[in-house]
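Exam revision sheet. Question 4 asks you to relate a sequence to its structure. Input first:
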Amino acid sequence: MRLSSLADYAVVMMSAAARHCGGAARLNATLLAEETGVPLPTAQKLVSRLSSAGLIESARGTGGGFRLARPAAAISLADIIEAVEGPIQMTSCVEGSRHDCAIEGNCQVRPHWGVVNEAVRGALAGVSLARLSRAPIPTHDPISSPIPALVGEQV
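Answer key, C-alpha cells:
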C-alpha cells in the first residue's frame, strides 16, 4: 500500500501547520508551499480539502488564512489521509456497495478483509499530528557511534 502524492503532501503541510499553530496565528497556503516545497496550486487544493474535512478553519480577508480546527494531538494520520483519499479501504470488498469482482462468489478471504482494514486504519489513527510535527528522536547507531557505558561500569 502506498499513499498518493496528494495525501503525502497533505501530511507534510499539516505537520508544518501544527508547528506554526501554537496559538491564534493564521497561516496561508503560500507560506506553507514555500516552507514545505509543495507546489502552490497543490497547496491551495489541499487547504480546500482539509478545510472541507474540518481539519483546518479558514477565514478570508485581512488577517485571514487558516489554522488547525482542533489541537494537533486530536488530529490523526488517518484523519488527514481520509480528508484527501476518502475512506481507508484495503480492497473493494470492504466497501458496502456492490463491486465487480470475478471471484466474489467463491472468495474465502472476503469475510476477513474488514478485520485487516480496521487494523490498518487503527494503526494510522494511532499516530497523531502532534507526534508527526515533533522533531524525530535520534536512534542509536551501533556502527557509527560508541556503545554507551552500562550503569555502574567504569568508562
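Marking note for examiners. Residues 149-155 have pLDDT under 50 and may be disordered.
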